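Progress note, sequence design subtask.
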């Protein structure tokens, strides 16, 4: 049994509305969407026009800078709309399902006999390549690169996150096949698992290096796990992907058909019955919140978790990399006395309010920032929740002044937005640290490639 890696820094935000490991019933929506905005650095070029018929696996658009990287339809039907924003930027490619779920067939394969080139070709053809993301930069992996390892985080420690052990139960064969495929792409495959969970799926998987983690969020972030096991140096490449994506790749190669089925959790304090649902990638949120919301006030709907997810409307869609819908109060109502109130029921990471005396209490937090942006306060707050040997405050200052040398020296290669989400949560200055980090990463890519 591998040694347990203990994560001491971090923060578990206990929110109301956690789902039990049970499934709810909901009819699949008619509409699905692939959102180019989910993919950092991708400039989409449409292949089909509105009204054209598609099958699951049919190409919708490709990346201008990597034309072989294709993005495909998750269902059969027709292209209903291409939603554009400012300067005609493509925001959503919406498909109306015909309910038949017809799929392209890419042929079955003997995994043991496949070479790396054949694996890469199949992943590109079937639209599965975007599952693979690279560190540094947390962008879609480049086709011509070879990583020194592939990392999978087998658990999610974010607030109200899904239980992947529960989700993967019954998919052990597909997961193993997916791992076998990944071993064709890199010399090592690593899985980080939660030491407190007795995971049969991961423990019985062959061809992987298993690492056990214990501690608060962000222990489940793949970037934190990479930093503990195989820290990134300049020039290193590591690829990452999520557990459900591994199983989807396994099913693609064993059945010949792309697998876009996903299990998601619908959770949050404003959900009446937080449960899991079987759905399809890019599904509209509407069937899963219908008659399932507490409608006493304005509600913020999020695709993903409360720290890193994207705000969507009640007719929005599941993000490409998300396995979670979350609903919390908007927090736009007037608060009597504001910060001067005693705060017996308020959440605080310090001892500003008496809530610190109830460490296991669950809170109904909202999206109110309780203040506006202000000057950076050098307080050491970030380092308390970021379990990496990085001087975060100095790094963000270096990004703001676009000092590339300092950014390199201070560890920007090791970080993605999700790794600094807790820093943003505790930030006294109310800085949008995830956006600042992405701006810094974009600058690195532009200057250094």
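Output:
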């Amino acid at each position: 049994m591998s040694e347990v890696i203990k994560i001491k820094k971090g923060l578990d935000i206990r929110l109301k509305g956690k789902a039990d490991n049970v499934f709810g019933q909901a009819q699949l929506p008619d509409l699905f969407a692939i959102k180019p905005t989910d993919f950092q650095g991708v400039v989409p070029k449409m292949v089909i026009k509105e009204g054209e018929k598609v099958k699951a696996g049919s190409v919708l658009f490709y990346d201008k800078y990597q034309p072989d990287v294709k993005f495909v339809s998750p269902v059969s039907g027709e292209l209903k709309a291409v939603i554009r924003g400012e300067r005609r930027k493509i925001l959503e490619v919406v498909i109306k399902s015909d309910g038949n779920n017809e799929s392209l067939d890419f042929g079955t394969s003997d995994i043991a006999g496949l070479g790396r080139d054949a694996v890469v070709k199949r992943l590109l053809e079937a639209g599965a390549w975007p599952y693979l993301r690279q560190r540094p930069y947390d962008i879609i992996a480049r086709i011509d690169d070879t990583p020194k390892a592939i990392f999978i985080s087998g658990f999610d420690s974010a607030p109200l996150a899904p239980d992947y052990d529960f989700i993967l139960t019954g998919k052990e064969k597909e997961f193993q096949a997916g791992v076998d495929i990944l071993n064709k792409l890199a010399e090592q495959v690593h899985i980080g698992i939660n030491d407190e969970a007795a995971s049969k799926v991961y423990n019985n998987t062959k061809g992987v290096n298993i690492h056990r983690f214990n501690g608060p969020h962000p222990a489940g972030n793949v970037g934190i796990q990479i930093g503990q096991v195989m820290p990134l140096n300049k020039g290193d490449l590591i690829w990452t992907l999520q557990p459900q994506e591994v199983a989807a790749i396994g099913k693609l190669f064993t059945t010949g058909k792309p697998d876009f089925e996903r299990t998601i959790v619908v959770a949050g304090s404003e959900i009446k019955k937080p449960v899991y649902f079987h759905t399809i990638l890019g599904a509209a949120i509407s069937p899963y919140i219908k008659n399932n919301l507490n409608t006493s006030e304005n509600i913020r709907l999020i695709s993903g978790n409360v720290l890193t997810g994207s705000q969507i409307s009640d007719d929005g869609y599941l993000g490409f990399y998300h396995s979670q819908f979350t609903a919390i109060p908007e927090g736009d109502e007037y608060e009597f006395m504001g910060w001067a109130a005693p705060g017996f029921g308020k959440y605080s990471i310090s001892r500003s309010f008496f809530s610190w005396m109830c460490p296991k209490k669950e809170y109904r937090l909202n999206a109110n920032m309780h203040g506006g942006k202000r000057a950076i306060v050098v307080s050491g707050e970030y380092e308390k929740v970021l379990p990496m040997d990085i001087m975060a405050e100095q790094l963000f200052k270096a990004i703001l002044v676009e000092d590339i040398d300092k950014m390199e020296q201070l560890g920007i290669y090791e970080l993605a937005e999700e790794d600094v989400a807790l820093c943003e949560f505790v930030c006294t200055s109310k800085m949008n640290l995830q956006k600042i980090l992405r701006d810094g990463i974009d600058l690195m890519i532009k200057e250094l490639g």
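DSSP finds twelve helices and 19 strands in the chain. Work on this subtask will continue into the next period as scheduled.
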